[in-house]
Structure formats: structure tokens, C-alpha cells
Amino acid sequence: RGGRGRGKKAASEEEEDEDEVPAPRGRRGGNRKAARKGKDGDDEDADDDDDEDGKGPKKRGAGGRGGRGGRGGRGGGRGGRGGKKGGKGKEGDEESEEEEDKKGAKGKKKGGKKGKDEEEDEEEGGKGDKGATGKKGAKGKGKEDSMSEGEMAKLMEEVEEKKKLIATIRNKPWRMRRRLTHLRESQQFVDKFEGALGKGKGRKWYAYKVMMKKKWIKFQRDFENFRTACIPWERKIKEVESHFGSSVASYFIFLRWMYGMNLVLFGFTFGLVVIPEVLMGLPYGSIPRKTVPRAEADSAQDYSVLMDFNGYCKYSVLFYGFYNNQRTIGLLQFRLPLSYLMVGIGTFGYSLMVVIRTMAKNADVGGGDGEDGEFTFAWKMFTSWDYLIGNAETADNKYASITTSFKESIVDEQENQKDENIHLRRFLRVLANFMIICSLGGSGYLIYFVVKRSQEFASRDDLSWYEKNEVMIIMSLLGLVCPPLFETIAELEEYHPRIALKWQLGRIFALFLGNLYTFLFALFDEVNTKLELEGSIRNASLWNMKEYYANFTLNSNDTEATPPPMHPSDIIRGPCWETGVGIEFVKLTVSDIQVTYLTILIGDFARAVIVRFLNYCWCWDLEAGFPSYGEFDISGNVLGLVFNQGMIWMGAFYAPGLVGINVLRLLSSMYYQCWAVMATNVPHERVFKASKSNNFYMGLLLLILFLSLLPVVYTIMTLPPSFDCGPFSGKAKMFDVIMETIDLDLPAFLGTLFSYAANPGLIIPAVLLMVLAIYYLNSVSEAYQGANMELKKKMQMVRLQQKKG
User: Fold this and answer.
1) Sequence-ordered list of residues with C-beta below 8 angstroms from that of 488, at least 6 positions apart, any chain
2) Which end of the chain is least crowded, N or C, by CB within 10 Å?
């Protein structure tokens, strides 16, 4: 009775614990306290929890004494249930006695080891003396007998709750001390009871599965760490990022991505075009297109000739003209012309897919930057810092940059109410854009003039080194001079550094693209000239062959004798305009590599050496004044990569070896530029986060990919191939290889299907349908944006009402 009275008092204070899940039999006595703590911790807040901790031992003690009174009526393993119900007073006693009779009957059926003591315990009901004896029997029974299904389900549910708490503990609005306490208790509970969920051998199997699951999670974590460690140049990029911020590191991440993409393109080109021709094609010297002409044989190995990619380089696998037009080659009957065309088209298809996929991944990177003009100071306060900075000097620069941006924002907010300088700023921006447009037009005209002049030089033999390389020198100089000029002019506009960077990128991109297309237009003028000469050269070649056979018959006086074949080096060659275009692209790429590396070596390294060692004996402070240490030119380097990749996409069709040259260039650039930036450059005075710069780079790359596709498609669909070189010689158009394959290798119905698919009557409606789909998706996107803006306005209104209320 004394136990029941104290149990009633405990029950009145802990009404929320009535529905608590009981612990399993045989384990309740040792773990009831931990289970009660874990349950209370999930349901109570911090203040109540502190109060309950002070009263907890008394309550648990009362409940335990009441439990001993109830355990005598239940038999061995049900003492905890009796203790809980025994603390409810007189009304609970009647219900507990009925349940005890039922469970006592079950205990008689199950218990083979209880004996007479347990039967006496069931008859005596609530006596606390024999409840203790029943408790001992429960412990003995719990070790041998498994739990009932109901208790197992409740225990499993409680274990899952503890696991969920462990997984979400960091999201709880609790103090750290309380989090650690609940985390420790939950882990102990899970470790102790998780393996008990089973019967007999099933318990060991479940424990084995739990152990293997934990090992699998650990293996996944270790494998993820290993995969991160295997990312190429990750440590180098992190080192640069810690010294110069994420804006400079974004360039090296972009460079690494470009290297990976070009490595795949290199595998396609060499695996499906170059290697089959080398292994299964005709050897060097067997046919005219694979042989150096006799007139050029003496100087074919000269260094100056090889540096111009003539001589043996011109008649090698690097260029289009080396490949034979046989429909199949080797024992495998490999279709080289079809493979050459499909690799050329697949290069653009794969690049387009990869660029778009990367842009989609980067779409959500960067978060909000407060560019919408709302909560400007909140954005600057909580999102301005670059947490990847690990260098003290860079951190100081970033701190000063944030301070300056706050001052500028305060001034901007004050100046927004004034209109006195808005007209001057607009005038200066218009003037800056006018000057830049004039510079772009002048550079384009200069390149066109130089290319036209080089065509005149082609008929002369007494050319100087400058006259031979005038086009490459002028284009490289324009790439060096114009970007700093644009940056100087952009000072008039007074844009934010991030916006100024995008404007600078766009202008340099326009410069490079204009120069490249001007170069292409002048080059295709030369191609048209060569195509006009091909007819006369072909007739001359045929006439030369007839003369050779006629002279042999006349000299031998035997009309039936078979004349020996003419040596390949003596046959008159056509101009092979495709190889000429490929040589120009390769020379342009190599000259760009040379100029880039020399610029870094002279412009950055030599400058840093002068500032470092002459600063002590100079008239002024070289570090603080002129020339000072150089800053890493993000816009120039990014546009150099994009421009170079555009040349690779356009020139790879005419020079398959150009992809391999570009892979070597990117590989060396990573090490060379990482060394240069760490050894010779200093962090920017205004360090800013990369934000969405990577996606902006991808947008420029996607644009130049589309513009690079146009000349290649024009070549394939419009221009006739050369008659004596390349895999498409002897055909009217290059795409005739596909039609030939459809007619000869595929079933007739597929040929009919392709002819229907190529019908303009189907292509035009398909294009219109795509345009309508794009318009619909764009309209839906604008509608969603409008809905988001309305929701923002409503949230602001609600916030204002809450502030007023």
C-alpha cells in the first residue's frame, strides 16, 4: 500500500508519461532510467527539462517502489508494467488486477521454470516482498525467452525514433549542452537495444545486418573522401583559392573542366580516326597524298619548314589531306570516311551536351547576392565574406573590400535621391562604349587587311620572317593590347567589380570573335581562289599521266608492255584547301600558346623580379607605386581559353591532330599558370566572390561553340572537297558519304525513311514546333517569375503588418 500511495503521487506529476513505451523484459530494470530520460527529452523544452532533472530521481524512485508492488501480481517479467499502473491509485488497481490475471495465465503457459514461487506471486497480487522475487525471475526469464511481438514492435519504434533524433539533432533549436546530452543518450539506447530486435538466430542475423550497414556507410564516406582526393589538381586549386579567393580559383576550375572535355574529344579523334589510319591504312610514300613532292623533298626536314607545319608535317596524320578515300580499310573493313565525318559532327554534339549539362548544374550555384536591390545591407553583412580565403593578405584585402562596399552602398543610398550626376554618368558610359566599338572595328579591319596582304605574299619566294608570320603577329598583338585598353576605358563607367568583369569579358569576347571571323572570311576567300584553280590543276595532272604513259610506249617500242606506275612524288598535286585551312588553325594555336607563355614570363615574372630586388635601391617604392606586382587577369585568361577552344572546334575537322596539341597546351598551362600566380601575382585590391562566374564562362563557351559550328557545317554542306586529298575526295559534297552508306549498307526502308526525314516539308514544321515549345516554356517561366514576385510582395506586406501590430 505504501508503494501504491507513492506511485499515485508520481503519476499525478507525470501525466505525460502514461503512454510511454515500456522497455523489453529482462532489460527494464537496468535501462528504465535511460529510456525515461530519452523520452522526456524529446517531448519537453529546455526549461522544463532542467526542472524535471531535479525532480527526476524522486519520481523514478516512487515509480519503482510502486512497480515492485505491482510486479508481485504479474509474475516475473511484467514488473515494470505493474509498477506504472500500480501508481495510478485505486481505480488503476482494479484494471491492473484484471490484466495481471490474464497475463498471469499466459505466464503459466510460457513459464516452464517459474515453479511454485511464481504461482504464489500471482495469487498474492500486490505484495511488494514477493514482487522483488518476481523481478528476479523476470531477469532470468528475459535472458532465455524472446520478447513478445507487441513489445518488439514498440521497441523497434522507439529505436527508430532515437535514430531519427540522432539524424536531426543538429536542426533542433536547443543549446549545445542539451544536444550533446540527448545525442549521447540516444546513441547508447540504439547501441544497446538495436541488436535485440530478433528471436533466437534472427537476433544475431539482425545484429550482423546492423553491423554491415554501419560498415557500408563508413565505406561510402571513405570512398567519397578518396574520390575527392583523386580529383586532378584539387590541392593546387585549393591553395590558389586560399590566397586569391574564389574568383581567381574559378578560372583554374574552368581550365580543369576544359582539360577533361578535350581529353574525351582527343579519345574520340585518335581512337576512331588517327589510329585506324595508322594501323590499317596505306603506309607513307604509297600514294601521292602521303608523299612529299620531289620539289619539296630537299627542304622537308628543315626546322623553319617544320615550324611552319610544311614538309613532313603537312603530309602526316596531323592534317586532313593525309587520309585516304577508300571506303573500307584493313581486315576489319573499317569505314574511315564515314568515321571521319561522324567524329567531326560528334565533337560538336558531345561538346554541346556537356556545356549545357554543366550550365544546368551551375544554375543554382551562387545563391542570392542581393542584386535585386532589396535588403542590400543584410546581403552584404551575411554573404559578402569568402570563406575559402586562407591567406592573411587576401583576408585583409577582402576585409577592406567589404568595408569599401558598405561605404559605397551608403553613398549610393544617399545619392539615389539626387539626379545631379546621372546625366554625366550616362554620357561617360556611352562615350566608353563608343570608343570600344571603334577599337573593335579597327582591329577587325586590320586583320582583314593583313590576311589579304598575306595572300599576295603567297606568290613570292623572297619573304622575310615578319612577312611570313604577319597574320599571327598582328592577331597576337591585338590580343595583348586591346584588353588593357578596354579595362582603361571601362574606368569611366564606374561599375561594380563583378559587373565590370562581365562587361570586360563580353568586350574581349567580341574582340576575339570578331578577329576570328574576320580571319575566317579572309581565309575562305583564299579557299574560293584555290577551288577555282583546282580544275586547271586536275586537268594538268591527268595530262601529265597521259604524257608519261605515251612516252613510255614510244621509248619501249612495245605497245603491249605495261608501264611502271609513276612515282607518287612526281605526280602534280592540287592545292588541297582543307589542309591549308588546318595549317592556318594550327599555326594560330601554336602562336597563341607562345605569346601567352612569353607574356607570363616577361610581363609577370620579370616584373616581379625587378620589383622584388630593385625596390631597395630605387628612387620610389616599386611595390606601392609603378610598376608594383601584377594582379591575375581573370577576364583575359578566361577569354583566352574560350577563344582557343573555339579555334580547336573549328580547326579539328581540318586538322585532327589539333586536339592533341590542345590537350598538351591545357596540361602545361595548369602547372605553368599555377606557379606563375603563386610566385608573381598578388591578390586583387577588391576581392569578390566568384558567384555565378562559372556559369557566365559556360555561357560564353556555348555561344562560341555555336559560332564555331557554322563554318564547319558550311564546309560540309556547300563546298566541294579537294579531288586528290582527304577521305572525301572524288565526291561532290562531303555529306555524300552518309547517303552512300545509307544506300549500300542499310535496308531499303531505312533509306526511304531517311529521305522522308530530310524532306523540307517535315523539317520546317518540326522547327516551327520547336519554336512554339520554346515560346511556351519561356511564357511559363515568366509566369512563375511573376508569381514569385507577387509572393515576395505579399511576404513584405505581412512583415510590415507584423511590425505595425
Assistant:
1) none
2) C
